[in-house]
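S.,

Sequence below, as promised.
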Amino acid sequence: MGQGHCSTASQRVEWVSHLVGDSGSYGVITHLSQTIGVSRQTLYSWKAKGQAALEQALRPARSKAEDESNVQLERAILTLLVEGHASYRGIQRCLEMLLGVHVSVGKMAAVVESAGQRAQEWFSHHMPATARGLALDDLYGSTHGQAYLNVVDVHSGVVWASTGLVGVDGESWTLLLWQLEEQGLHWHTTVSDGGRAIGEAVTTVTPDQPHQRDVWHILHACQQVQARLDRLLERLQQQVPVVARQAARVAAGKRPRGKCPRSDVSAHATELARAQYTCEGLRYLSGELRHLLGVVVLTAQGIMPTAVRQGELEALVALLDELSQEAPDSMQHELVRLVTLLRAALPHLVLFAPGLDALQEYAGHVLGPRAVYLLGWAWQRRAILGPTTKALLESMPADWQPVAAPLFAAWDAAVRASSAVENWHSVLRPYLAVHRTLSIGMLAVLAIWHNHRIAERGLHRGQSPLMRSGMTQENHDWLVALGYLPQGAPFSLESDADSQPTLALVAFLGLLLLILQNRVVYPKSCRLLFQILRFLYSRCCSKQIENTPCLLILGSIPGFSPSICIKIKKA
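The prediction came back faster than expected:
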C-alpha cells in the first residue's frame, strides 16, 4: 500500500486551488512539485479530481418536470417490452410514432438493465415468512446444454427465482437453492419432472424433505404412448383389404405386389386382434393410473390409504409389463419405455399421500367412514358444487365443518404437479422467440410483472400471484414496485450535490475566495461568482449549517469563515 503525503486538508485545498486557477500557465506544476515535495503525477491526479468534482457540482440540476418526463419514458419502454412483447427496434418505432420521441437502442438497454437491478433488489427483500411448496424445472434455450432454471410457488404461482442460461447439472441447481435459502425462502416440499440434476440438488440441500414426482408428466407420457399405439392399430385396420387382395392374387397363382407384401389373412387378423387388445389394455391401465394418482382415491370401503395405494400402483406396473410382453412387435418398444419410466418414478409418485392419512383416519373416527367418503366425493366435484372449497365447506352440516375444514385444507395443499412452473415457461416462450436470449435482469423484470399481474378470468379472477400467496392484500402496479411512479404521483428528487467529494468542492470555493481577495475579476464576473458560491453553499448546507463537515474544511482556508457564507446566503 502506498504511503500518503504528509499534508493537511487545508494545504491541499490551497494547492489544488492554485493548480486549477493557474491552469495553462507554464511551469506551475513543476514549481509546485519542487516546492512541496510532491510528484508531478500526484499533482495531476489531484487536479483531475478537483476538475471532475467541479464539473459535477456546476452541472445544471434536472428539474422535477424533466425527471418525471424521463420516468414516464422509462415506464413506456418497459410497458411496451413486457406487455407488448416488442423488440428494442419495435419499441423504438412505437415511441417515434406515438410520442414523437427517438430513443436509442443503447438507452433502452440501459433502462432494462436498471429495471433488472431494481427487480433483483426487490426479490432480496420480499420473501415469504412461511414455508412453501416449490415447483422446479429448467427451460432450454437456443444454446446446447444450457437452460433457464426456474423456481415457482406451487399454489400461488409466484416466481421466486429465474436464472440466466447456465449448465443443467446438480451444481447449478444446488447453488440456486442455497441462494434462495440465504435470501430467506423456506420450503417444505418440492416437485419436478424427475430431472436428474434437480434430484441431485434437492438431495444435497434438503435431504429430509419429500421430492414429489410430477404426475402430469407421467400421465402425459401415457397419453403419448396411447396415441402412438392407436395410430399403429389404425394402420393395421387399413391394411385389412390390402392383405385380402394380396391373398387373392396368391390364390390365383400371381405374385403379391409391393416391397414387403402381406398375404396371410389369418396372421394379419391375429396381429390385429393383439393390437386391439394392447390398445384397450393400455387405455384401461392409464385410466386406473390416473385414478390412483388423484389426491383422494375413493373405494367401496372409503378413502384408500397410502399403503394400499402404493401396492395398487406396483400391481399396475406389473400388469403393464405383462401387457408389453404380449403386444405385437411393433408396439413393444413403446410399452417397454413406458414401463421403465413408471418404475423409476414409482417411489416418488405419491409422496403427498402419507401426510393425509392421519387427518383422514381422524375424520373417519369422528364422523364415520360413510361421511368421510361423502366429503371426498364432494371435494372431487368442488368445481361444480362450490365452486370454491370455502363455499363447499359452508354447504356442509355445521357439526361436520370443524372436521371437514382441516381435511379440505390438506387436500387443497397436496403437492403433486409442477404445472405452476410450466405456466411460467409458457410466459417466457414468446419473449425467447423475440429476443433469442434473456438476461438475468430481464428475467427478474418479467418475474416482477408476472407476480403483480391480475388474473382477468378463472377461479383466481381479480387476484395476483402475490395476493394468492398471502404476502399482500391489495394489488400494486408492478412498475411502481420497481420505483417507476406514474405521472402526478409524489416524487422526491435527491440532491446531486450530496455525493460530491467534499475536498474537491472546497478547493473550488477556496479558488473563488482567492480570486476575490486578489481582486483580479471584473464586477459582473464577481457577481456571477458570488451567485455560484451561494448556490453551492445552499446545496451543501441545506440541512444543518453547524453540522456540515464541509464548513470544518472551509474554516481552514485563509481569510474564510462561516459568517462569510452566511452573509452571502442572505444577500
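Residues 9-61+497-570 form one domain.

Coffee later?
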